[in-house]
Design goal:
- By secondary structure, this protein is of the alpha+beta class.
- The protein has a domain of 212 residues: Apoptosis, Tumor Necrosis Factor Receptor Associated Protein 2, Chain A (Sandwich).
- It is 25% helix and 22% strand.
- It contains eight helices and 14 strands.
- The strands form four sheets. Strands 5, 7, 8, 9, 12 and 13 form a six-stranded mixed β-sheet that branches. A four-stranded antiparallel β-sheet has the order 6-14-10-11, with no helix packed on it.
- A hairpin with an 8-residue loop joins β3 and β4.
- α3 packs across α4.
Amino acid sequence: MMTSPCEDCDRLQETLPEGNASVRPSFQQPTMYDHLSSFTKFKEDKALARKLRAKEDELLTFNKNFTSLEFDKTSGEILDKSEIRKHRYNLKKEDRFHRLPEIVEPEKLWKNQHDDVKLTNSLTSISRTPISCPVSRCGSTIGVTSLLSHFMRDHNEDLTVEFMNLYTNGRAILLFERDMWNFGENVCLGILSYGGIENKKSSRPALRGICKQNSFLSETFAHLENHLPILVMACKTSICSLLDDKELSKELIDREDQTKHILIIWLATVQTTKPIFCTITAFDKLMISSRSTIINVRSLDSPQKPEEFISNETNYLMLNHGELNILSEEGKESIRVEIKIQEFIE
């Protein structure tokens, strides 16, 4: 005789008048199918198993190298088992060495919370080594979190354009003159403060683990703590700098021959956990002629002198002597440069 049957067991039994219920033999003890709650869970597990098999069959059509799938409770998604193990290992590792910044309501632009957590985990890979100011007339050594405060404090009068806030799919337009450059001198055209999606505080780069928070900001700029500072750099050099042979390049460079001069424009920022892309477009006053390219924002821990990187990189916009004349109408008008920041979904 069963001593204390559960409610689900009683619900399944035949209803008899009180006092006339028969004694249930031991071989009729309830199984998992007799319990409504257990049976409901059993059906849910079967449905999930069918869903996993269907997803695996679909993935096998396009990729025969994946392992198998599993339902990850932490992210609420069906993921590759190897990815889940890697994700959980990174979380444990991060808890030991570094406190994770809080991630609040990630937006659909970044696929899901799982991607944001992976980005946050990568913060420990960012070097704390100080960087050098890329402006030739400065060269100060600054901390990786002090870039924005350094430029707003020490270069505020040097900037040829005002400081700009920039968000995803927004644009910044800068103006410069054709003849404003000294040969071989790095100049900062402006500083952009990239903040992700406008009016969405949770999309700020530092909150999503793309970069570290800015420090030593004044009260005026305290709201930019979680923005990513991006420098718009430019330098006039010689077309001979494109040669791989640097010794030959130095011999051929003629500072006086302006027909061989080129203008290099690039974007630079602190080290980030994911690439930040931008579109740079140089155009004339009437928007008849233009030059455009899509580049990756360069890291400030890499060389910032054009002659050191233009021969083996493409992350810059190059304008030669003839193009500068066309865009400036032989020096009569200012040249416009439009910059758009875009985070591509990986």
